[in-house]
Amino acid sequence: MIIAVDGPAASGKGTIARALARHYGLPHLDTGLIYRAVGASVLREEGDPASEGDALAGCSFDDFLLEDPWLKSEEVGKAASIVSAHPLVRKALLLRQKKFAAQPGGAVLDGRDIGTVIAPEAEVKLYVKATPMIRAQRRQLEQRKGGVFESLDKVLADIRARDERDTKRAEAPLRPADDAVTLDTSFLSIEAAVQKAVGIVEAAK
Ligand code: C5P
């Protein structure tokens, strides 16, 4: 069984994908981390994420970079959303993700284009969403735990800018697959959201 989980930043898709993977004993891939590793490599080499050549060079990152806590920062998240708009970058990273999805026994993948591009054949497609303000509040809380203190206005502006880039790009824009089930986590606790997600998977199995 392949479970595709898509949605915007801080919607809860990562938490839900991890919980589903645990629940069903499936391997999990956070595809955002791959784009973050590309963005981080470009920044580290003092390249320009908007340059397709620099971004493409960043695709040959070392896998140990995936473990770097710096990848979680907004700086890298922003670079990731810029490099991910380049068609050649998406092409370079396609096979790795498709292979992960196609492994025997199935997998859970989360990202922006899992249900639409990476695994359109997925048995279960979830589109996780929440209002921009609620996502900004969650992101701010997460940042504070990591010792980063930004105003809610700034966090909200970053979230909106990322939504804008991810939904408006020409290549694999963020959108629900036609056969995706939407899960709005705005007013749900993590436990309630996971419970709903399991219910959706059970209904689709
Ligand atoms: O999910 P996360 O915030 O870690 O993703 C970082 C960025 O990587 C996103 O804003 C998006 O632009 C890009 N991304 C993507 N396709 C995916 C996963 C992430 O374009 N499947």
UniProtKB/TrEMBL annotation:
Binding-site residues for ATP, renumbered to this chain: G7, P8, A9, A10, S11, G12, K13, G14, T15
Protein species of origin: Stakelama tenebrarum
Membership in a protein family: Belongs to the cytidylate kinase family. Type 1 subfamily.
Subcellular localization, as worded in the UniProt entry: Cytoplasm
Keyword ATP-binding among record annotations: yes
Protein origin, superkingdom: Bacteria
CC terms in the record's Gene Ontology section: cytoplasm
MF terms (GO), sorted A to Z: ATP binding; dCMP kinase activity
EC class (word): transferase
Presence of keyword Cell inner membrane: no
Keywords for this protein: ATP-binding, Cytoplasm, Kinase, Nucleotide-binding, Transferase
Protein name: Cytidylate kinase
